[in-house]
Amino acid sequence: MDLAEPLRGNRSLSKHKGSICGRDATTFQQAMLAWYEKNRRDYLWRLQDDPYRILAAEIMLQQTNADKVEPVYTEFIARYPSVSMLVQSGLQDLKALLSPLGFDYRAARLKNIQRN
Predict the structure, then answer these.
(1) 46-55 pLDDT, tens per residue?
(2) What's domain 44-115's architecture?
(3) 75 is catalytic
(4) Which of the residues 5, 58, 70, 75 is marked catalytic?
């Protein structure tokens, strides 16, 4: 489904300078939820309720495709299943593990989790 389909031809959008208001917002929300139900993928981090694992996924997902993150996330959680295990890691080890994702800042952000 084209997500813009329910909104095409709706002249009321133009008077709001691109914002979606009222009934249009509800229509858009319903279209987004229907699209998600049809197209969602069940990534490991979506099945979590552990804040550490969710935060780790969020850091890895910054500016990176989820399909690229999935194998790195799986290996990361296997090596560092808890904050206490992460604290014991070396920054260079984290950089090496996360290198397929690019952006070295991720390793430093993960390493600093215990400080916050």
Answers:
(1) 888 999 999 9
(2) Orthogonal Bundle (1.10)
(3) no
(4) 58
